[in-house]
Amino acid sequence: MNLRIAFHIFIISGVLLLSACTQPKKSTVKSQNDKLIAQANVAAVEEVPTLSEIISVDVGFTRLHEMVQATGYAKKLEEEGPYTVFAPTNGALDRLPPKMLENLKKPENQKKLTSIISYHIIPKLINKQDIIKAIKEYGGSVKLKTIAGDRLTASMKGDKIYLIDERGNAGRLMTNDIEASNGIIHTTESVMMPN
């Protein structure tokens, strides 16, 4: 009889030991799952493209991408920022005088091209609502300081926002608040020209 009791105690002890050993595995699996979920969340945050990446892959910016590449601004638009880019679309660049874009891409005109690109970049984050609020607070228009120190004027006509360059040329903002990991893009229907 003692052997039978000892056998039952052995079996019960084995079951308890086995169940005790499986508990940490569940918590280990759970903690591993938590780590994978945390890593996936970090990866999702990191997958937001930079300004440079958006400009390089969006078919509406192929000509702008060529200009950015020719100036070396591709690296600048990879940096932390934040930057606000008023990005002329292909249509806006097509409205430039014939051959102007090709001439601007020549090495001897790189300084001029760089000044045009920098005239479209503000060294801080400004979304559409920020622009509207500033226009209203400043009596109908607001000056925006570009990365090169020049000024663009933002104003409204009806519910549309317009940029006006130093030469008096105006262009409407079309698509607003395209978010990047290091800033924001607003598309424009015109190319802004510094003096």
Itemize the secondary structure elements and their pairings.
Elements: H1 2-46, H2 51-57, H3 62-71, H4 73-76, E1 83-88, H5 90-94, H6 100-104, H7 110-118, E2 121-122, H8 128-137, E3 141-145, E4 151-157, E5 160-164, E6 170-172, E7 178-180, E8 183-188
Parallel strand pairs: 1-8
Antiparallel strand pairs: 1-2, 3-4, 4-5, 5-6, 7-8
Helix pairs in contact: 3-7
Keywords summarizing the entry:
single chain, 195 residues, alpha+beta, four-stranded mixed beta sheet, four-stranded antiparallel beta sheet, 8 helices, 8 strands, globular
Describe this structure in words.
With 195 residues, the protein is an alpha+beta fold. The protein has 8 helices and 8 strands. It has helices spanning 2-46, 51-57, 62-71, 73-76, 90-94, 100-104, 110-118, 128-137; strands at residues 83-88, 121-122, 141-145, 151-157, 160-164, 170-172, 178-180, 183-188. The strands form 2 sheets. The chain has a 4-stranded mixed sheet. Strands 3-4-5-6 form a 4-stranded antiparallel sheet, with helices on one face. The longest helix is centred in the N-terminal third of the chain and has 45 residues, at 2-46. It is globular. The relative contact order is 0.14.
Shape: globular
Please give the alpha-carbon distance between the first and last residues. 106 Å
- What series of H and E elements makes up the topology? HHHHEHHHEHEEEEEE
Note the total helix count: 8
Alpha-beta content class: alpha+beta
Residue share in helix = 40-55%
Total DSSP E strands: 8
User: Reading side by side through the largest sheet, how are the strands ordered?
Assistant: 2-1-8-7
Radius of gyration: 29 Å
Question: DSSP strand (E) fraction?
Answer: 15-25%
How many strands, which pairing sense, and closed or not: the largest β-sheet? Answer: 4 strands, mixed
Uncertain runs are none
Overall pLDDT score = 85
